[in-house]
Amino acid sequence: MFVFASLFISLPLVAFCGTGSVWEYTGIHGPSHWHEEYPDCAGVMQSPVAISSEKATYDVSLLQFGFKGFSELVDANMTMKNNGHTVQVDIVDTSLRTHGGGVTGGYKPVQFHFHWGADNSKGSEHVIDNHHYPMEMHIVHYSDRFQKIEDAIDKPDGLLVLGFFFQIGPHNIHFAEVFNYLENVAHKDEIIEIPPVVMERLVPIDLIHYYRYRGSLTTPPCYESVVWTVFTQPIKISNEQMNDFRNKIKKTTVNDTNEEDLVDDFRPLQQLNGRNVYSSFLTQKSSTQAPSSQTVQSINVVCKHLHDDTNNAIITNLSLFLISISILTSGFTCGN
Ligand SMILES: [Zn+2]
């Protein structure tokens, strides 16, 4: 039964890793050569990108996400695997759904995985205001418009990826439920079934503040099919938990004589090439979209952001001015 399940879930892995041609994060098969075997990697909508809070455009349509089933133990099998490029947890046969967040329709989460550095100064794929985090997690979803991820993986908006940064802090008991199994997947191609986890406990409390742009898979075949969501609030884990990735996970198989640590599995930053990055919130020097496109619902969100941001005492005079104009032109006032 377990063998069958493993074979079944290996399909998305094949699609993501593009088996058949070797790719690496360094050397002759490194990122600057990926396009030779995977032409999409030379596209103009590639990921990851550097995000500037100053240049991001505030978009009032970027509402809160809804996460169906994330607060319960998932009714799914979870399988952790070392594929030589990352540690990936596959979520198989789940009823979990993500919707809202300014995307059309529902998206089904299928796996989450990690990118990390050899030390705390690097590791994240996305960079915000030139800040690199030691690790980034991607929760990969595909659109309900498709029957399976293989159909969605190369289609515009076929995938939704939620990106979360990590920073060093106290021991994280919720992630420990996942990280406890790292030593079981120390070597490439090792795989283990893990007990299901409550997804909500893995993500930060603040899911309102995020950036949005159109981009790609950050690994070959680099399809430009991803609606990217990068959350601003980092997840905290201890230095010991972070070091477990660096010390326990190898990019070599159990049979390889020269054991090599799996570290620095992040792609270099890609050019925006004129793409906009949008923010779900007013940044210090936000530009905004035209108020005429705003709806009653959007105004409610503006009001909520006004409330949140006021609590955080980070709202600027410019932001207050823009919100006032938005509300006046729409004829609505903020409720509680
Ligand atoms: Zn990733």
3D structure, described in words:
The chain is an alpha/beta fold. The chain has 2 domains: 265 residues, Roll (Carbonic Anhydrase II); 41 residues, no CATH class. The protein contains 7 helices and 16 strands. The strands form 3 sheets. Strands 2, 4, 5, 7, 9, 10, 11, 12, 13, 14, 15 and 16 form a 12-stranded mixed β-sheet that branches. The protein has a two-stranded parallel ribbon with strand order 1-8. Helix 6 packs antiparallel against helix 7. The structure holds zinc ion. The site of zinc ion (ZN) has 4 residues, from strand 7. It catalyses: hydrogencarbonate + H(+) = CO2 + H2O. Keywords: Glycoprotein, Lyase, Metal-binding, Secreted, Signal, Zinc. Belongs to the alpha-carbonic anhydrase family. This is Carbonic anhydrase.
Helix- and strand-based class? alpha/beta
> What would you call the shape?
globular
Number of beta strands:
16
How much helix is in the residues? 10-25%
Series of secondary-structure elements, N-terminal to C-terminal: HHEEEEEEEEEHEHEEEEHEEHH
The poorly predicted ranges are 1-19, 290-336
Radius of gyration: 20 Å
Mean pLDDT metric: 84
Total helical segments: 7
Separation of the first and last Cα atoms:
53 Å
By CATH, the topology of the largest domain is Carbonic Anhydrase II
CATH homologous superfamily (4th level) name of the largest domain: Alpha carbonic anhydrase
Query: Could you name the CATH class of the largest domain?
Result: Alpha Beta
Ligands (ions, cofactors included): zinc ion
Integer tally of domains:
2
Largest sheet: 12 strands, mixed
Strand content: 15-25%
Corresponding CATH architecture of the largest domain: Roll
Catalytic activity: hydrogencarbonate + H(+) = CO2 + H2O
GO cellular component, one term: extracellular region
GO molecular function: carbonate dehydratase activity; zinc ion binding
Keywords: Glycoprotein, Lyase, Metal-binding, Secreted, Signal, Zinc
